Amino acid sequence: MRLQADPTLEPASETGWRRTWFDIIYRHDTRRARNFDLLLIFAILASVLVIMLDSVASIHTRHARLLYSMEWAFTLLFSIEYAMRLAVVRNPLRYALSLWGLIDLFSILPTYLSLLVPGSQSLLVVRVLRMLRLFRVLKLTRYVEESGVLMGALVRSRRKILLFLSALVTIAVVFGALMYVVEGPHHGFTDIPTSIYWAIVTMATVGFGDIAPQSALGRFVTSVLILIGYSIIAVPTGIYTAELASSLRGGPDAGQADPRLCTACGLQGHDPLAAYCRQCGQALPPAPGST
Amino acid sequence: MRLQADPTLEPASETGWRRTWFDIIYRHDTRRARNFDLLLIFAILASVLVIMLDSVASIHTRHARLLYSMEWAFTLLFSIEYAMRLAVVRNPLRYALSLWGLIDLFSILPTYLSLLVPGSQSLLVVRVLRMLRLFRVLKLTRYVEESGVLMGALVRSRRKILLFLSALVTIAVVFGALMYVVEGPHHGFTDIPTSIYWAIVTMATVGFGDIAPQSALGRFVTSVLILIGYSIIAVPTGIYTAELASSLRGGPDAGQADPRLCTACGLQGHDPLAAYCRQCGQALPPAPGST
Amino acid sequence: MRLQADPTLEPASETGWRRTWFDIIYRHDTRRARNFDLLLIFAILASVLVIMLDSVASIHTRHARLLYSMEWAFTLLFSIEYAMRLAVVRNPLRYALSLWGLIDLFSILPTYLSLLVPGSQSLLVVRVLRMLRLFRVLKLTRYVEESGVLMGALVRSRRKILLFLSALVTIAVVFGALMYVVEGPHHGFTDIPTSIYWAIVTMATVGFGDIAPQSALGRFVTSVLILIGYSIIAVPTGIYTAELASSLRGGPDAGQADPRLCTACGLQGHDPLAAYCRQCGQALPPAPGST
Amino acid sequence: MRLQADPTLEPASETGWRRTWFDIIYRHDTRRARNFDLLLIFAILASVLVIMLDSVASIHTRHARLLYSMEWAFTLLFSIEYAMRLAVVRNPLRYALSLWGLIDLFSILPTYLSLLVPGSQSLLVVRVLRMLRLFRVLKLTRYVEESGVLMGALVRSRRKILLFLSALVTIAVVFGALMYVVEGPHHGFTDIPTSIYWAIVTMATVGFGDIAPQSALGRFVTSVLILIGYSIIAVPTGIYTAELASSLRGGPDAGQADPRLCTACGLQGHDPLAAYCRQCGQALPPAPGST
């Protein structure tokens, strides 16, 4: 829902071309608005493809000129789109400072900046800026209305998952430091941050193998770390599954959403099916509509 | 279910050998049909084994002749089977253009094509063609009737899983580009597509290690990517588990959707199939349409 | 349950030392039987430790004699135990041919065989035989009575998981062959069996990295394979979770276990809480004890 | 809950500065107590950061003096805190021997010990001791009150998960020994403990790739091991999800355990906390002991 266009955005005027274009750009329920959306998705994907191809050395050397032109073409196209978006809303600043407004801006800025910061020594910087244009991809999610359910369950289990992640990081810090002592720099565990990186890679069962224990004790500690990671990999899955199952079912959360207070004892959190307070037996007001 | 033989296929004639063979080839409920199926499964597995052994250099040099003959024997066998399948159906074109018809064709074609495209320079091409014969393996799934439940839950959660995958790919694109900038070509992140490949390998916790971050910043970004991946690995599991649990249970969804109250004792939450209250025996109003 | 001592085993005689020892060896509910069990667990773990230490080159060269004696001591101890087990049951052959009887035999046999097959050239073979002694470890599970619930859910979801695994192997075969053609022997995909091994390693998100794609196309195919694997990793988890949740809840299965038939309409499968038939309203017999 | 400050700790006196500081240090519900907690969290994180940075060779050489001073500053700060904690409780020994008391002690001891054990040859030992100071990080969990639910489900599924882990280790031992025989020392499987480490790394889908099978038979055995691991990775997830779902729901388990029937309408399945029937308002018999 937060990924939808900001509902507080209003057209700059109720009639005229600004109203027409507002409907085309910000709404998604007419034929013309949908065509505009499809066109934009196509342009975004194409521009990302151009950036990706440009990064491949063999393609860059052969088609540098073409890719450079296309990059500018897309940048101009998105600049016009950005100007239009600003022009047709009543409060352009609100759009410009919203999450999507910033992403729209960042996806055109780097190309312009690459003109101001020329020279061979700034190549690396330019690459950083160009990378930002890939945030364009994020725009795609705006068009997915259905992500609501999945996103909702994720947002509701956010606190629990953050808690879990901090427990994970704590274990990674302790085991990272332990492995730094046990294995030491000559086995690849060059410092504690590197060891922590290794511990995260190991606990999450990624296991690149760029760093790996080589002593017997190190391998034993690693086995223990893996078994710990393997035991708690269940936790985020459990959190999310329980949350999603309950939201598909309209479950405990629906129960919590039941706003009825007992008029006698003040107890909240009644079963939506309940007609009487389970604590004092007082008749409850009718439920505000079942889930 | 979609993996069953196309139910719209009809025998070419109601009597005679074509009817007999139609029943043997396309049906699975008589003794002869089952024997035919078993024979075919055995032939498919054996032919795949021959192709696999032929690819092992040491075996190929010693038994080239034998393996070559066997490959041709299986190809002829499957060609006869393919001809029979065409011969006994009323509408051969419908079979030929169905998914299974195409797989059946592709599993015999490469061997014939290897005669037309001879010479040492085409060895690679021939291998590509031969590989296609392995699609024979896919035929096996046709014989598994029980996959219905599992497949059903997968098909029903298809949209949600696709949505999840596109979110995953979006994150992979952004982080791939980021790592391309942070680590650069001299650390193995040679171009953005390669970096995206690396990001997918990392997020899915595969972690080959053929490419791995080597700078401190790169390792920090990798840790963040891994923690993101680790947090959302729960999503497809949650989707599928909730879907499967609800279909095994015949559904809380179904239960809650049933709005009927017992007129005698007021109990809600009846089985949609129930005609009488399970608590007091009172006749229930008719269900508003089963799920 | 199948891992318990075979309940069909009966003491060789109802009195005397054979009865006494039968109770000590095969039962687990007296003080002496428990002491015997603990002693056996300790001996098994110690003997496995000896084998493990003996395999470490630096320890072997220093303590070869000691470890050799201990290995023989444990072998004699387990041989006596095996003879006792045979002696105190009424039908020794039934025990000898049961799963546990065979494991007990295989855990002592290799040491004796190493006497008959001497000579330096056969050392490798002897090692194979010695490895079998590690099956002793499997004995440990016999003592875990509680594994019943977990094992039960695993056994009940056995068919579904096998189906899933064969789908996994089918995909691995097709993608293995595809990668053999795409990457070829000079990138490590030396033959189709090796490629299939690589595909399994990749789909299961293990990702050793001993073999990894190096061409752009190969990396694209790998990404697709990983996304497929990532989408269906949910399947076994979903199967098992749904099965376990339902057995913890006494759920649909318990419902099926409710043996009450409606005396009027014959419907089975009532809610254990139900007092009246949900189909015809007939009073049900009392439930045979709630789950 | 076990991670909270020990509820049996009592202030040394009911009035005076000791009471004041007891409330600041051990309680978390006043403004000053919260400020103290925040300050302590900040100090812990900063001190861990200093240790981490000190381990990076390039930073150590440039800022050795600064980092050394900061390490001593934090050590003194935590020493004062430790002394305060001892001073304000009635029974200092009970605190000192509690889990948190020991962690608090271990997080300051190593720095002092590094004075007593000087000399270049003992540098490695000092590193071991310094690592222990990272246990400070563990203190952080004390401040997370919400981890109760997640921790509770983990604690309740503890037995099942331990059982699962021992099954995992058993399989790892058998397959480790098998691979030691199949692949042998010249392929990296130098001894059985190393092979077991490899089997754990493989089954848990970490797959570093530092050791990998190279023979055809070894790769086949590895594939089997991976498929086994892939099938049972569902088990801890299933256990935890089922446990968490049931505790979020307030539980079918709880519901089923409550045997009370409403004497008026006969409804069963009441909340164990309920004193009145939620359907008809009738007073319920007292619950037979809450779950």
UniProtKB/TrEMBL annotation, chains A, B, C, D:
It holds the Pfam family Ion_trans. This is Ion transporter. InterPro entries: Ion_trans_dom (IPR005821), VG_K_chnl (IPR028325), Volt_channel_dom_sf (IPR027359). The chain crosses the membrane at residues 38-59, 66-88, 108-129, 161-182, 194-212, 224-242. It is a multi-pass membrane protein. Coiled coil: none annotated. It comes from the Bacteria. It is found in: Membrane. Residues 34-242 form the Ion transport domain. Keywords: Ion channel, Ion transport, Membrane, Potassium, Potassium channel, Potassium transport, Transmembrane, Transmembrane helix, Transport, Voltage-gated channel. The keyword Transmembrane helix applies. Its main location: membrane.
